[in-house]
UniProtKB/TrEMBL annotation:
This is Type III pantothenate kinase. It comes from Candidatus Methylumidiphilus alinenensis. Coiled coil: none annotated. ATP binds at D12, I13, G14, N15, S16, L17, T18, K19, T133. Pfam families: Pan_kinase. K(+) binds at D130. One of its GO terms (biological process) is coenzyme A biosynthetic process. Homodimer. Pathway: Cofactor biosynthesis; coenzyme A biosynthesis; CoA from (R)-pantothenate: step 1/5. Its main location: cytoplasm.
Length: 253
């Protein structure tokens, strides 16, 4: 039974960036994201983020950054709060969502938790596009059945693969003014962003066909604001979607 005074530190540990928030009374107060490597290289960041708050009732975590990062977090929470974090994992089904993976545990836990958050926010068909180190797109029908998903390199990985695999190409510029660019850095920026937008639009159309109706498109991840203006269908930004899913798992467990 959840006590109204309980507070939950929700942590979404990505490959590059860690997002977090403190939830109380069903609402999430998001904190400032930090580089995931801070768990190993700069634990003072965690002190600055978390020790000025009251100790949480629980620490609930979705982690895709590996066991070494997980061990650093366990050590920190036990040292300062005498708390062991709860690491969630992907399951065959749970919280109204049915995992489509042949081996359900292989679905990235961040994707699983985001689908739970999406399903409980919007009971109809949804399509979740997450723009992080990798770009993932997953679809659910109105019954919460996962229709599958895709994984592609994120914008920075696409940039780096071009630079490392070719001769004398510059890093992509930040400016993006037109689809058909007239200098190389802008052409790389345009090409990678349009590739990401095109992937989402193609997955969205397939999800609509399989669901029998147009899904609600939810965008999350650090590069979502960069891709959003290129999309040709309605969307909603949900930057804390994984944290929303973690809170759903806490409240309904």
């Amino acid at each position: 039974m959840i006590d109204p005074s309980d507070s939950f530190l929700l942590i979404d540990i990505g490959n590059s960036l860690t997002k977090w928030g403190v939830a109380k009374n069903g609402r999430i107060d998001p904190g400032e994201p930090f580089a995931t490597q801070c768990f190993k290289n700069n634990p003072e960041t965690l002190v600055n983020c978390w020790l000025n708050r009251l100790p949480p009732t629980q620490v609930v975590v979705a982690n895709v950054a590996g066991s070494e990062i997980a061990a650093c977090l366990v050590s920190w929470t036990q040292r300062y709060w005498n708390l062991a974090p709860r690491f969630v994992s992907s399951e065959a089904e749970g919280f109204g969502v049915h995992n489509a993976y042949l081996d359900p545990g292989k679905l990235g836990v961040d994707r699983w938790v985001a689908l739970i958050g999406a399903h409980h926010a919007y009971p109809g068909p949804v399509c979740v596009a997450d723009f992080g180190t990798a770009i993932t797109v997953d679809a659910l029908n109105s019954e919460g059945v996962h229709l599958g998903g895709v994984i592609a390199p994120g914008l920075k990985l696409m940039h780096r693969s071009l630079v490392s695999g070719t001769h004398d190409l510059p890093l992509a510029g930040e400016a993006f003014h037109e689809s058909l660019a007239r200098e190389t850095a802008a052409a790389i920026a345009s090409g990678t962003r349009q590739a990401a937008a095109g992937l989402v639009e193609r997955c969205y159309r397939e999800a609509a066909t399989k669901s029998g109706s147009e899904p609600r498109l939810l965008l999350t991840g650090g590069d979502a604001p960069t891709i959003a203006p290129l999309l040709e269908m309605p969307f909603e930004s949900r930057p804390e979607l994984v944290l929303e899913g973690l809170l759903t798992m806490v409240l309904l467990r």
